[in-house]
Amino acid sequence: MSSNCQKTILAIIRATKPAFPSGNLSSKYIFNRFNGPSICPTSFRSYSKKVKEAKQKIKDLKSEIKTDNEGNLELVDLDKLREKMDKVIHFLSNELLSIRSGRANPGLISSLPFKSKAEKAKRLDQVATISAKDAQTLIVVPFEEDSLSNIEKAIRNSGLGLNPLTEGSAIKVPIPRQTNEDRQKIIKALNQLTESTKVQIRKHRQDINKQLKSKEKAVSKDYYKQWEKDIDEVASEYIEKIDSSIKLKIKEIEKN
């Protein structure tokens, strides 16, 4: 304890005239006998300053938080969270369309990249119409006939195991039937796609939980817990969408 602090305490004690043995009114005696005051006035001032700063920090934090139409604090933006998760689901939907199920589906090749010498890369459905002639055949009709050979090449080199044939001004794309081995490979790939998509959803949930954590001290514990619950419910909703989409695709594959 500093000398100034001890002098201050001794002055207070003398002013109140406590009963001490004669000649023993010293800082050593006082602090040994009574374990002395552990906080001097300067420490009180320092503590008070910290409390004031903490209160101001919470006040500033609350001022940064938006409110809804009813005046309730919106700790995080759940609409933005949904937008991000919607993009994940949209990506998954496109991936599922590009997976061969054994039936003719225009979505199988619609998003294939196509690039001509004069233009930037585009999706195949931006340069041609794609339709299903029957359960096992797709028909591709280019908007410009001189792009026939390039479109045929794009389909052949897509890695989908397709062998397109040019017939006049159109391209016929036979869809081969799947074997049991093919189905098992596709289902395995779908399970991997399921997990990687869920990881993206969990990442978005983790990011928004970090935002929520930074505002924890600005609200009551119950209010904070309710927002945690709301975030978990949104994430669970999108996890269910993923599971539902994958199950439908697997069912489609197993039927063909």
Automatic annotation (TrEMBL):
The alphabetical list of record keywords is: Coiled coil, Protein biosynthesis
State if Disulfide bond is listed as a keyword: no
Query: What protein family is recorded?
Result: Belongs to the RRF family.
Outline what the protein does. Necessary for protein synthesis in mitochondria. Functions as a ribosome recycling factor in mitochondria.
Which protein is depicted? Answer: Ribosome-recycling factor
> Residue limits of the Ribosome recycling factor domain?
93-253
**The organism's place on the tree of life at top rank:** Eukaryota
Extract one GO BP annotation from the record: translation
Do you know which InterPro entries this protein is assigned to?
A: Ribosome_recyc_fac (IPR002661), Ribosome_recyc_fac_dom (IPR023584), RRF_sf (IPR036191)
In this record, what's one Pfam family?
RRF
Query: What is a single molecular function from GO for this protein?
Result: ribosomal large subunit binding
Gene Ontology cellular-component terms for this entry are:
mitochondrion
Q: Which residues form a coiled coil?
A: 44-71
Does the keyword RNA-binding belong to this entry?
Answer: no
